[in-house]
Design a protein that fits this description.
Layout lengths: L2 H7 L2 E7 L4 E4 L1 H6 L7 E4 H5 L4 H17 L3 E8 L5 E14 L2 E11 L7 H4 L6 H18 L3 H9 L10 E8 L2 E8 L12 E2 L5 H8 L3 E3 L2 H7 L4 H4 L6 E9 L2 E10 L7 H38 L10 E8 L10 E7 L5 E8 L4 H19 L4 H23 L6 E9 L4 E7 L5 E3 L5 E3 L18 E5 L5 E5 L1 H5 L5 H13 L6 H17 L18 E8 L4 E4 L2 E4 L4 E7 L6 H12 L6 H21 L4 E8 L6 E8 L19 H8 L2 E6 L4 E8 L41 E2 L5
Antiparallel strand pairs: 1-2, 1-6, 2-3, 4-5, 5-6, 7-8, 7-12, 8-9, 10-11, 11-12, 13-22, 14-15, 15-16, 16-17, 17-20, 18-19, 18-21, 20-30, 21-22, 23-24, 25-26, 26-27, 27-29, 28-29
Length: 747
């Protein structure tokens, strides 16, 4: 026996109510229980609602919402009425509601409830409660729903879904004031094929809404005759929609009439004092919700327009390069902030990339950001070097701080900034940094490295701060990321853990997709920090907008090729990092260790990684202790994974070669060469004219064991230096090489 037959045998009907489409599907038994012919039918929501007692229908919405929240079954008793409003039976509804895009879908059963015997307690208990209790519950729910509405569209949708106790409007319209004319803000309950019922009209028009706005008094029209007699000019328009009663109420906020609200009813409504009280209260709540939504939308439009005018668009046609950018303001207050990015064409034909962060997330931060961006563009357009651009901008911000502190009592603000001068032809990057996070480079083999750069204090703190310039080369196939600290530190992270969180996304990026893939990477980076865009989600993936985010991605197209027997073949990518450590910056030894560890992040043997880090620390420290020059570190990995080689060179400007010593048990130094012999696969010292290079190599093997030496015990060939094969050394990093750190002149 089928399920339908079983349900019919026990006088139980099936129904499905789709709130989104406004359609209700009934089987034959459900239709009979509602007082309709015993045939399967699909009806409008209004047609089915007319079969329920108005008070019961008003309460069922609250039952459904509670069941959705708790994930339980919605159960209610409903009185069925005939066309004259008399109760013919009582049914029990049991259903499982499901929310779909903000609307509910109800699937359940209807079963007749036997009449209680006279004298029993059930006969003395109301089915669903009296009018006054229903009205109070309705007003509480309506106030909560309208208070949570954040836009005009949401306010209108909430108003259209209100189930008033005892009477339910089938058509709604909200009118606003535009000068001396009435405009339609929104309407509900009119079929799409119907001619638009409300056109713009003047305040002097003979129309109920216009009179309500002029006088500030509500108009109630219980019957079509009342409407036809009082407003004969407007009646032909209203008669098309076959309503039987109308209520027009003023929308008053802060003592000022801001519009009118129309409720049209398909069933006669007498508009008793209780009914008028409910309508008046709803109109007041609706006016306040519309006023709040209008203010929020105006502020949002102002903020977006202000931010759009301040934020540039990236230049899409840089020869051989692709750029993607994002700006996401914080969710606290206005959608403006102090983060910014910029692209500036320079007189030399190069491009300047700028990213910065003004302290704060308010309107003042946005104003300072706009002034800084204009000033920085002006200094860059004059052709100044990166260090001079930042130095002059710092003077500019310090002057603003001094004026505002003395004249307006404002606190001084500072700003971090990263200024990068890009040569598209060679990939050369000249970087000046003012207290900003370092750039990250995604190498052609997918490895991400945070590249340490020299820098000075944030802008505006000390006008006399110098900003040394660091020179890097963005190789073909590499991608550079520069961002503000909101991308890195949101969610309680520091710089180290924040970069670790982003590493997986950056290394998974497919640079074969070109500009489209770069845009996807930019979106993925923001999404990884914010989580899903929702104000109702809690937990680790909630919408975390703690700080503004600005980011720029720069991808250099192309790749290296080698000549083979069949012509040009793709060259195996080489992983390389270059870092200079100045005599005055011994703290950068820690950065050197971190760079080597990052380069070896996927090395098979972790013991070899520790050995490489220890030897690098020893080699760089020896240069700073025993020479008068700087140390230049070059670490390079080549070969197939599982049998790779890493070669690390540390160059300095001293001609004195290291020599073996025999330290005593209590000696604090003298064991560097002993460590090299014990830990390195092979090592050596190469004189290079005015200076030398100390180097070592390690060989990877699957399973983590140290690999063998090169075939026949031959010394491995010198790897390419910073600009190709090893050549004459210099006392510092070669000009134009992968990295050059020099103090910049004062502006």
């Amino acid at each position: 026996m089928r399920t339908k037959d079983v349900l019919a045998a026990i006088a139980t009907g099936l129904w499905r109510w789709d709130n989104a489409s406004g359609r209700v599907t009934l089987d034959a038994e459900a239709a009979r229980l509602l007082g309709l012919p015993a045939l399967a039918v699909e009806l409008t929501e209004a047609a089915v609602r007319s079969r329920f007692h108005p008070v019961d229908f008003a309460e069922i919405n609250g039952v459904i919402q509670l069941a959705v929240t708790e994930g339980t079954v919605a159960e209610a008793r409903l009185r069925i009425v005939d066309t004259r409003g008399r109760v013919v039976r009582t049914v029990r509804s049991r259903s499982r509601p499901r929310m779909v895009d903000g609307d509910f879908e109800l699937v359940g059963t209807l079963q007749e409830v036997p009449e209680p015997q006279p004298g029993t307690s059930a006969a003395q208990t109301p089915v669903t409660g009296d009018w006054r209790r229903s009205r109070e519950a309705f007003l509480l729910d309506a106030g909560r729903a309208l208070a949570e509405a954040r836009s005009t569209a949401v306010v209108l949708r909430v108003a259209a879904g209100l189930s008033m106790p005892g009477f339910m409007p089938e058509g709604l319209a909200v009118f606003g004031i535009d000068g001396d004319r009435i405009s339609v803000i929104g309407h509900h309950g009119h079929d799409p094929g119907t001619e638009q019922p409300f056109l713009d009209m003047g305040l002097s028009t003979d129309y109920p809404a216009a009179e309500v706005i002029r006088t500030g008094r509500a108009i109630y029209l219980p019957t079509p005759d009342d409407y036809r007699t009082r407003f004969p000019t407007a009646w032909p328009v209203a008669s098309r929609f076959q309503r039987t009663s109308w209520a027009f109420l003023p929308l008053v906020n802060a003592g000022r009439t801001i519009g009118a609200w129309m409720a049209g009813f398909g069933r006669p409504v007498a508009f008793t004092p209780d009914e008028r009280s409910v309508l008046t209260t709803v109109a007041r709540m609706l006016a306040q919700a519309l006023a709040r939504a209008g203010v929020q939308e105006s502020q949002h439009e102002l903020a977006v327009g202000l931010q759009r005018s301040m934020m540039p668009t990236v230049q899409p046609d840089i020869p051989g390069m692709t750029v993607a950018a994002r700006y996401v303001p914080t969710g606290g207050g206005l959608d403006v902030g102090g983060d910014w990015y910029d692209m500036i064409p320079l007189p030399s034909g190069r491009i300047a990339l700028v990213i910065g962060d003004v302290q704060g997330h308010d309107v003042r931060a946005a104003g300072l950001m706009g002034q800084l961006r204009i000033a920085l563009r002006a200094y860059a357009a004059e052709g100044h070097h990166p260090d001079a651009v930042l130095s002059r901008t710092s003077h500019f911000l310090a002057g603003i701080n001094d004026t505002e502190t003395r004249g307006h009592g404002e606190d001084a603000r500072f700003a971090t900034c990263l200024y990068i001068e890009v040569d598209p032809a060679t990939g050369l990057l000249d970087i000046a940094r003012a207290g900003h996070p370092d750039p990250a480079i995604r190498m052609s083999d997918g490895t991400m490295l945070v590249r340490p750069t020299a820098g000075g204090m944030p802008l505006g703190i000390d006008p006399d701060t110098d900003y040394p310039t660091t020179r890097l080369v963005l190789e073909p196939g590499e991608t550079m990321l520069v961002c503000t600290d909101g991308l890195i530190e949101t969610g309680g992270h520091d710089l180290e853990s924040g970069w670790a969180r982003l590493r997986e996304l950056i290394e998974a990026y497919d640079d074969g997709e070109g500009g489209e893939g770069l845009e996807q990477l930019a979106d993925a980076l923001v999404q990884a920090v914010h989580g899903p865009s929702s104000h109702h989600t809690t937990g680790p993936l909630n919408d975390r907008r703690e700080d503004d985010i600005a980011l720029l991605l720069l991808y250099r197209e192309g790749g290296s090729c080698a000549v083979g027997t069949g012509g040009l073949l793709p060259q195996r990518p080489v992983r390389r990092t270059v870092l200079s450590v100045a005599q005055a910056e011994p703290e950068r030894i820690a950065e050197a260790r971190r760079q080597v560890r990052d380069v070896l992040h996927d090395w098979a043997d972790p013991d070899q990684v520790d050995s490489a880090v220890l030897m690098v620390s020893e080699m760089v420290t020896n240069v700073l202790l025993h020479t008068d020059g700087d140390a230049l570190l070059v670490a390079e990995i080549s070969g197939e994974r599982g049998s790779r080689r890493i070669r690390v060179d540390v160059a300095d400007g001293s001609d004195e070669l290291p020599h073996r010593r025999s330290p005593g048990e209590l000696a604090s130094s003298g064991r560097g060469l002993v460590l090299m012999e014990l830990l390195a696969g092979t090592w050596g010292v190469d004189p290079r004219g005015d200076g030398k290079s100390t180097w070592f190599e390690l060989y990877e093997a699957e399973g983590g064991a140290a690999g063998p030496l090169p075939p026949d015990g031959a010394e491995p060939a010198d790897p390419p230096g910073p600009e190709g094969p090893a050549g004459p050394p210099s006392s510092g990093p070669p000009s134009g090489g992968p990295e050059e750190s020099v103090p910049g002149p004062a502006a």
